[in-house]
Amino acid sequence: MEKGSVEVFSPATVANVVCGFDVLGFALDGPFDKMVIRKIAKKGVAIINKDDYNLPTEPAKNVIGGALLALLKEVPEEIGFEVESTKLIKPGSGIGSSAASAAGSVVGANQLLNNRFSKEELIHFAMCGEEVASGSKHADNIAPCIYGGIILIRSSSPLDIISIPAPPLFVTILHPQIEVKTADSRGILKKQILLKDAVTQWGNVAGLVAGFMKNDYELIGRSLVDVIVEPIRSILIPCFDELKNKSLAAGAIGGGISGSGPSVFMLSKNEATAKDVEKAMIAVYQKSGVDFHTHVTTISNQGVRIK
Amino acid sequence: MEKGSVEVFSPATVANVVCGFDVLGFALDGPFDKMVIRKIAKKGVAIINKDDYNLPTEPAKNVIGGALLALLKEVPEEIGFEVESTKLIKPGSGIGSSAASAAGSVVGANQLLNNRFSKEELIHFAMCGEEVASGSKHADNIAPCIYGGIILIRSSSPLDIISIPAPPLFVTILHPQIEVKTADSRGILKKQILLKDAVTQWGNVAGLVAGFMKNDYELIGRSLVDVIVEPIRSILIPCFDELKNKSLAAGAIGGGISGSGPSVFMLSKNEATAKDVEKAMIAVYQKSGVDFHTHVTTISNQGVRIK
User: Fold this and answer.
1) Quick one: B219 and B92 in the same domain?
2) Is the whole model's pTM more than 0.80, yes or no?
3) What is the DSSP string of chain B?
4) Hey, are the CB atoms on A192 and B193 less than 8 Å from each other?
């Protein structure tokens, strides 16, 4: 890379992780967005799209712009950034496309500023980018995108980010080519829930964290149950129940909706099983008539990478 | 001990553990109940109380009786048990007095049957004893009483019991001499809660499990927050807020209501702090006019002990 510029690879992420609604997320090894970020002599952000998604280039209306403008507020020097963005994570897929733009841009910019900001500060800047996309500041894609691995956001305010160690996990993703807006997907949730369902859910969240940290695949699987959000959101995803049942039959440990959908993820112990799960998912969707993409990847302990 | 009899020491336990309502519990090193259990040649249970609590001796109305009758249903031989019970854990204190009777009696009886039943089966029998005391089968005191240590009950049906490793933790207990019936303490809870509060709670439950398993005392402390049950139940406990604030000021990591109360527990990193916390608690209660007892002990990895 030329001096004063960095090339950034920013990975897709899975938020919520079934029972961990709004508190858990993990980073994938791929797909990832690419960005080239250059320091420029003028305060502000210039965005050049190198893909066909036709995203707005006006900084205040763009996720990258929102994140970098927040960062630049804390930079006294008269500098700015030019960003060439190549999105390989499809916007609206539910695997953290906007988080990849937001997190990747601030991590890259920070490198050009000799890493003067902490990871927590970068999360705050990136959350301002997420706000442009979804109207709300949330960290459940951004935190794993920046930290890598499995991340617990114990609290959003004040921010409390905890890395959860885990055994190797392979991930199969199916992305149906339908649009599910985060705002809609959140709007259909009930504001009140039964205490007894909440108890079931926090038993599962506790079991999931314990399963990850004990390298106990069976416990991870038993804990991947969501009695609150999935029963409501899954109606927006064609063939969800069949997709899940056939994936489990093919050997998946468990899985569910990625973020607010429409993508569905499944975890497996090894690559061969993750590929069997992919075949099972493809078989379900081929007869559904809905276009789709699939990915087989891993949970990656590395977040945003810089070259 | 004479042949055909065992001496049993059954410890007090703390259920709920602040944010872990109905799913977490841990065993204390003390206080504990003592029982002498003898195998007798006649089907049935005979209970001899060696204390002044005047608990019913009719087996179907006694926690020990309820638990042992459930166990005896699975024993084909024409045998029974005589139990001399010395309760040192005050009934109604909220530190698992009935669970100690239920769990201790079945663990002791199982020893006299050459340990033919698994720990899970013993939990089921003991839950039948708990039902006599509280009208509902629950395992959040019984499971830690039998297993020792910190226990997650991920699911009650089917039973899924997970041991959570943790660093050394000292426990200060204050038991106000007031009566809080479990049924009343459960009755005042709301059946419906806000989803956003539930998210806060499962973030904390996940943080607490991660904190225990990472030996991270600060994370344990930050996670010991209950936004759902404590705000309601604490109104039944005199001076609760002051007790908690003064304990934290004296160095406690965190704490809250033990089970459904009235006892309050606080965790500390070392014994000296736990004793400072005890002094702070005593100072609050001495001016309250309510009689009380205190204990300073540890979380113990040993459950029911047999001599």
Assistant:
1) no
2) yes
3) --TTEEEEEEEEEEESTTT-TTTEEEEEEEEEEEEEEEEESSSEEEEEE-SSS----SGGGSHHHHHHHHHHTT--SS-EEEEEEE--S-TTSSS-HHHHHHHHHHHHHHHHTTS-S-HHHHHHHHHHHHHHHHSS---TTHHHHHH-SEEEEEEETTEEEEEE-----EEEEEEES----HHHHHHTS-SEEEHHHHHHHHHHHHHHHHHHHTT-HHHHHHH---SSSHHHHGGGSTTHHHHHHHHHHTT--EEEE-TTSS-EEEEESSHHHHHHHHHHHHHHHHTTT--EEEEEEEB-S--SEE-
4) yes
